[in-house]
Amino acid sequence: MASDFTVFLGEMMRRPAEVSAIAPSSAAVARKMTEGVENVTGPIVEIGPGTGSFTKVILQRGIAPERLILMELNPRFCDELRRKFPGVTVLNQPAQEIEHIGVSGLGCVISGVPVLARPQIQREVVGNAFKVMAPDGVFVQITYSPNAPIPEDVQASMGITATKRGTVWANLPPARVFEFRRKIQ
């Protein structure tokens, strides 16, 4: 059985457009990304789970597998995720389709999809997620930039606001974690 790093490296070389990180996320980043997930209600969607670094910690935090939906583009990663996490729904679909997967009232979206470098994805992914998110739902995003991965003017136009959860130095490269919520009117 191949290790997560071996699978990750192989897919990064075979499908570089689908694998945007240089290494799987560290356990420290996974803990920061999933903080408080056990306190949300409703379904939880993870987009871009890769080899499942965040998925593993979400389940360790006591989330029932039936509440968790993974959206992953890479077919090999999907096969590995299904094998490693029985009971979790794994969809081989792009994150942009989140509003069409048949769930609403999402309590949380955990995102490993790089939105900083792709402005169109900011609206297609984050905007679509908020269309099916519960009013108090949270969108958690990893980035390698010191700033929020969605500029303030785009946040304002989407009716959301960013808060930095923290920086995780124990990751390659060091990562920042931001959460997005609807603006309180």
What is the compact description of this entry?
It contains 6 helices and 7 strands, in the order H-H-E-H-E-H-E-E-H-E-H-E-E. The chain has about 180 residues and is an alpha/beta fold.
Strand segment count? 7
Order of helices and strands: HHEHEHEEHEHEE
- Main sheet record: 7 strands, mixed
Q: How confident overall, as mean pLDDT?
A: 88
Figure out the total of helices.
Answer: 6
What is the topology, as strand order, of the major beta sheet?
3-2-1-4-5-7-6
Structural class: alpha/beta
Query: N- to C-terminal separation?
Result: 51 Å
Residue share in helices?
25-40%
> What is the strand content?
15-25%
Shape: globular
Query: What is the rounded Rg?
Result: 15 Å
User: Which stretches of 5+ consecutive residues score pLDDT under 50?
Assistant: 7-13, 15-19
Q: Care to describe what's here?
A:
By secondary structure, the protein is α/β, with parallel strands linked by helices. Helix content is 30%, strand content 24%. The protein contains 6 helices and 7 strands. A 7-stranded mixed β-sheet has the order 3-2-1-4-5-7-6, sandwiched between helices. Helix 5 links the parallel strand 4 and strand 5. The longest helix is centred in the last third of the chain and has 13 residues.
Task: Looking at this protein, list some descriptive labels.
185 residues; alpha/beta; seven-stranded mixed β-sheet; 6 helices; 7 strands; 24% strand; globular
